[in-house]
Amino acid sequence: MARVITQRQLRNENGEIMRALDQGQSFIVTRNAVPVAQLSPIKAREFVSRELVATILEQAPQVKAEPFRQDVDRLLDQTPTPRA
């Protein structure tokens, strides 16, 4: 469960809050008693082996390239026009 802290606490106790984040704790930051932000630790990346990815993709539905391209072209304007 996230601990509720004020904007002032975040400013004044940022070192303590950062150490708590390192330990896995989360925070809800309030301003004038209204929640405005959620601070949560970033999850560590997890290595996924090539074999596992291949196994997962074997079970994925097949995508036909030409209908996929047509759908993308219908939905997105990909005209290579200069922006500047």
Description:
With 84 residues, this protein is α+β, with helices and mostly antiparallel strands. Helix content is 42%, strand content 18%. The protein has a three-stranded mixed beta sheet. The N and C termini lie far apart (48 Å).
Taking Cα atoms only, what radius of gyration do you get, to the nearest Å? 23 Å
Helical residues, percent: 40-55%
Taken as a percent bin, the fraction of beta residues is 15-25%
Order of helices and strands, N to C? EHHEEHH
Number of helices: 4
Uncertain segments: none
Secondary-structure-based class equals alpha+beta
Shape: flat
Largest sheet: 3 strands, mixed
What's the oligomerization state?
A: single chain
The overall pLDDT, averaged over residues, is 92
Output the CATH class name of the domain at 3-39: Alpha Beta
Q: Could you give the order of strands across the largest sheet?
A: 1-2-3
- The CATH architecture category of the domain at 3-39 equals 3-Layer(aba) Sandwich
Count of β-strands: 3
The N- to C-terminal Cα distance equals 48 Å
* CATH fold title of the domain at 3-39: YefM-like fold
